[in-house]
User: Fold this.
Amino acid sequence: MGLKILTEHINVPGIETLEVYRKHGGYKSVEKAVKTMTPEEVVEEVKTSGLRGRGGAGFPTGLKWSFLAKPEGVPRYLVCNADESEPGTFKDRWFMEHNPHALIEGMITSSYALGANTSYIYIRGELMFILRILEKAIAEAYAAGLLGKNILGSGYDLDLHVAPGGGAYICGEETALLESLEGKRGNPRNKPPFPAVKGLFACPTVVNNVETIASVPWIVNNTGAEYAKVGIGRSTGTKLISASGNINNPGVYEIELGVPVEEFIYSDQYCGGIWKGKSLKAVVPGGSSVPILPANLILKTVAGEDRLMTYESLADGGFVSGSMMGSGAFIVFDEDQCIVRNTWNYARFYHHESCGQCSPCREGTGWMEKVLHRIEYGHGHQRDIDLLVSVAKQIEGNTICPLGDAAAWPVAAAIRHFRDEFEWHIKHPQEATTPGAVYRGQLNSVTA
Amino acid sequence: MAKITFDGIEVEVEDGTTILQAARKIGGKVVPPAMCFYTPLKGSGGKCRVCLVKVSQGSAKDPRPMPKLVASCITPVQDGMVVENTTNEDVLNARKSIVEMLLINHPLDCPICDQAGECNLQDLSYEHGVSAQRFEEERRTFNKVDLGPYIQLHMTRCILCYRCVYTADQITDKRVHGVLGRGDAAEIGTYIENVIDNDFSGNVIDVCPVGALTDKTWRFKNRVWFTKPLDAHRDCPTCSGKVTLWNRGDQVLRVTARKDEYSEVEEFICNTCRFDKKEMSDWTIEGPRKIERASVISANHYELPVVNVPIIPNLPKSAKKDLPNAPEQWNP
Ligand SMILES: Cc1cc2nc3c(=O)[nH]c(=O)nc-3n(C[C@H](O)[C@H](O)[C@H](O)COP(=O)(O)O)c2cc1C
Ligand code: SF4
Ligand code: SF4
Ligand code: FES
Assistant:
């Protein structure tokens, strides 16, 4: 078992209460930070740690924090992105449900580092019960003097609020989130200006994922240099992976970055192998937005090296033969899964979730979904495959926010790696629409 | 001041000017089209993506190119910036594909649409569209909705440019107009069909680039290219009273605000001027309105078309005007 930075105490009974949480070393980072460190020193530690954003893009957190504009007399905000709605991702909700104080501790320490006196946790609307858990924990923290005025006698003030969204995926995009938090329709903003300059209520703002923020206390307690020792290269520390699909042990795992993908899938410590001993067909390693990879490419890079669970290794080969770490949603497909159906399902999601502001995404997501639906239900034409590739390309890079790219990539990747499966669907509509029928051609070329 | 090179042409503009406005300063064929940006409306732009351009040099200080195409309507210039529009294949291809996207769910009912002849989407598709149709699916449709006695919303034609939303927000004082729903199911809503009841509500018709918001007092009365536009004014207690009348003979068929070559209104007008003053006696006529837009209505009845210049002797001065946006075949 590797080092557990986030989940060491998550199974301790009563850890959701302040008392038990503190017994296990909770809120030490707040004491250390507000009493013995300057905000700049905290930012420095986070920079040294090499911690990267866990919300999907993997941007270095310390660097992001150092970009925060600090004009005189203007408030700054820290906003925690707990909107988690990417298909396949369920790490944040699990973490907040079981260990709410760990997030609150991270919020206090991080807010101190950024000089924010008001901070928000923006939580997905469907997670009302977790909002209540967080609010209960926040009330406990206020009562213990960990929130509010003059925290632990240090002179630092912080108010922390939890705000629910309306359950739209797009409100996870940071600027749409800020619009929604301001009480407006959750349309992503045009950038620049970036939130670091003009964010919430037009003030400098940092938006970070739940897991990112929850990693900060350990870094403050143990130093950034210690954190940087975990992991490989620029992928430092540990990461929560939501593993789902046809595996024996679906669930959330905290891994040290650098675990080989093969070990992650087949070891009993993690996924425990493919369900019912079937063979592996494909993996979407980072949430529905990232390219799908067939078994051979997820286990080994084109150069024949073992693929590792790191930002760099998963992306090795670019979009030709690689994928992305994304939000760490590891979705496994066995030999009986239909890639066309899955691609259609993802396309349906993005069609439903596009905010509709920009023409390529608004129209293109619907177009792709309709074409994929036709192919899946036996009404496809061979020309549809190239049409899909072309529509995906027309969306990619031409939109306001990355949802357009996120909608285009899975379609383009599925066709890139499973073109013959699409062709088979079109050529044999009757067979393809028979319940339970799956194309098995690729498996011959796959070495698992 | 910032000096930029746009399609090889140098132009100097104030700091903070957008690339699009700098291009408009040059004018003519190099200007990128714009379907959502509207100078008088704060916050507009960035949505339709037809104005995408390539920034091949960010600035004199930082000459790196911008990685993606950028929306020229919201991207400010930097000194030493080099921008490619009509000279860049990627830009032209991206624009083509965006026009295609705008059209897939559009009903293409131009023959029965009041906006035909002065529709920005029509012009855009003529210039940048492809004639082949790749979309075989069912189009999205909505029912027509009356927004009060004067305005009709034909949502099926809407391209969600948000101009009317910004107008309702900024010009009219009680906001009852916004976008409901998401993605291609998003629609202009007026909260349970609340009428937009405001002295200036009619302006949403003028800002709409397509025939989604139309004037019910003009509906099916005529085709715009058969009408004669006249500039006129009246003493109006509510607005400037400066309008364009669209006449058939002495009959005022429609009143609109005065629009420039980019279809942007010079001054917003009130509903009384727009909907209630349909007699010639209501107005002081200033003279013919010159339409400089690249649309069939620019072939209006006041200027000789610029054809066979050497054959027609003593061409009146007005006909010698360079019509940069006129379709090619008029300038053989
Ligand atoms: C469509 C879309 C949805 C997103 N959803 C989430 C989300 O649910 N949670 C999240 O943390 N980040 C999400 N992101 C990423 C955020 O925009 C942002 O990059 C992130 O919250 C930054 O935090 P980090 O630096 O800690 O990763 C989403 C991005 C896009 C484009
Ligand atoms: S890319 Fe899609 S989701 Fe993002 S702003 Fe444009 S329409 Fe909205
Ligand atoms: S109704 Fe017209 S102005 Fe309003 S969003 Fe649609 S196209 Fe734009
Ligand atoms: S005019 Fe620039 S994006 Fe619409």
User: Anything to note?
Assistant: The domain at 232-334 of chain A is CATH 3.10.20.600 (Ubiquitin-like (UB roll)). Chain A touches chain B at residues 168, 170, 185, 190, 351-367, 370-371, 374, 387, 394, 397-400 (CB under 8 Å).
